[in-house]
Amino acid sequence: MRRPASILALCFALSASFAAAQESELPPILKVRNYLPHMTRPEVEDLLTRTDMVIFPVGALEQHGTHLPIGTDYLNGVERAKRVAQRADVLVAPILLPGQSPYHMEFAGTVTLPSTLVQEVYVESAKSLMKHGFKRFLVMNAHGGNRAITTFIVDRINQETEGIAVDLGAVSAAFRVRDQDPQPTPAPAVLDRHGGTGETSRSLYQIPDLVDLDAAEVAQVTMPAHLEAMLPEVLAGDPTALAVFLAEGLKDEVTGKGTSAAQMSTTGVWGERDPAEASVERGRNMTEASVDAAVAFIERWNALRPPGTGR
Length: 311
Hints:
- This protein is mostly helical.
- The protein has a domain of 161 residues: Rossmann fold (3-Layer(aba) Sandwich), CATH 3.40.50.
- The chain has eleven helices and four strands, in the order H-H-E-H-E-H-E-H-E-H-H-H-H-H-H.
- The chain has a four-stranded parallel β-sheet.
- Helix 4 packs across helix 5.
- It is globular and about 55 Å long.
């Protein structure tokens, strides 16, 4: 009578162990063509016979409200770069996860680096890839707070090395032929920026498994009175108003401007629209418009300067 009970107990233990092992398994990593972390050395050497061009997606690790992952900027930037690389046959080299995000530091999970350090890492990484034969660098900013940093990265590569660099967002703007952000109905005239419906839409398209719309909350947004007074002109599209608004908005708490993410927003989202208004279709249109423009620029650059030409 004892033996069957022992066998039954053993079978139960093995079954429980097997179930636990299955639960602890992670999804398989699917190889992506031209994505440097997935490539073997011979594959990199083979790619170099066809191109000397690299995309550097420059992202961030920072809070994105209650519904988007900390890695939203990094992940969306890398996913967009991968899409470009499948069509344009260039290398995608993600170098850093964090960027410059000091104004989000009051929210848990944010990681920020000094701008000089971010610059140095990308410039040195470009030098490494130049050693192997890559020559041209497409610096693709995926986080608004990195805008000045990416400008310096591009300039330093051009001024200090044998490489050639461009800001992919800036140079591809002229190639946009699709509506960047189509809306089935006019958008409400309210602030809708960091973590809002646009960023949520792109995430629903590119990283859907990481978006939790059920957890989305409508933020209560406050800001200094003079910025509040300026907001209608910002929303109306006045470029001067937007420039001076962003010069003060979303800045580190230590600056004393009173505009860090936590000082202005109850959730970390810098916008008053419900993030749940986002849609996959809007995200697809926004993403593919950027990809189409980037591919068109790359094709034009290759026509003007085929790989392997020049010194």
